[in-house]
Design brief:
By secondary structure, the chain is α+β, with helices and mostly antiparallel strands. Helix content is about 30%, strand content about 30%.
């Protein structure tokens, strides 16, 4: 699911269901982090790191711990960048060499409406207006949840490049629908604060893709080097 949203240079590994989490090993450094975690948190933490290590192997990198760094962002092996996501019954990791992409972000969410009051805290007025039009003209996708997922992917791509927080109101995201498939499309995120500099070029926006199927909405942002 995530793979179809990303270029061929990105390696992805997905896991559906978490029943085998008890058989997946954690590194000692990771074990410390979830030693007192509830069962759900431990399962997701374990499975998504298993996905990340399998992605490392696909890239020819020795599997190693994935520890949280500043603001919880994962610390990747030298020469790699990546992103992880998890929700009920689904985990995924995406990794790429830094020579191929400057950054990436992925997110998956259940394809259901956001809890009451959440949309008002994450959506700009222009975004909310566009969502209303999509609800009227393109029913069948929970556009509010998709916007939330897109905001998460934008932040995950932003933070490794800047080391700074990005508020929900600091990126204006427009969702476009594929004319041949109403459950997939592209997204454009206009950065409303000074963007990161990549290869000497100041970025003013991020671009990505989305899909809604199998009970999930998924989004991905890629930041090219040039």
């Amino acid at each position: 699911m995530i793979e179809e949203l990303l270029p061929d240079t990105v390696v992805t590994v997905e896991a559906f269901g978490h029943d085998d989490a008890g058989h997946l090993p954690l590194h000692p450094e990771e074990e410390v982090i979830v030693a007192r975690a509830v069962a759900k948190r431990r399962r997701e933490f374990t499975v998504v790191r298993s996905c990340a290590r399998r992605a490392m192997e696909k890239l020819g990198v020795p599997p190693q711990p994935v520890l949280p760094g500043e603001r919880g962002a994962p610390r990747w092996p030298d020469g790699l960048t990546g992103s992880m996501t998890h929700c009920d019954g689904y985990c995924a990791a995406a990794l790429v060499r830094l020579t191929d992409l400057a950054s990436l972000g992925i997110d998956a969410e259940p394809d259901g409406p956001l809890p009451d009051g959440v949309l008002e805290t994450i959506a700009l007025p222009a975004e909310a207006a566009r969502l209303r039009r999509l609800d009227e003209t393109r029913p069948g996708v929970h556009w509010d949840r998709l916007l939330f997922s897109a905001k998460e992917s934008v932040y995950k791509a932003w933070f490794p490049l800047t080391g700074r927080w990005l508020d929900f109101a600091e990126a204006d995201i427009e969702l476009s629908v594929d004319p041949l498939d109403p459950r997939r499309g592209t997204l454009h995120a206009a950065l409303l604060v000074p963007g990161p500099t990549v290869e000497g070029r100041r970025l003013g926006h991020f671009d990505g893709r989305w899909t809604a199927r199998d009970g999930l909405v998924t989004t991905a942002i890629t930041v090219p080097r040039t």
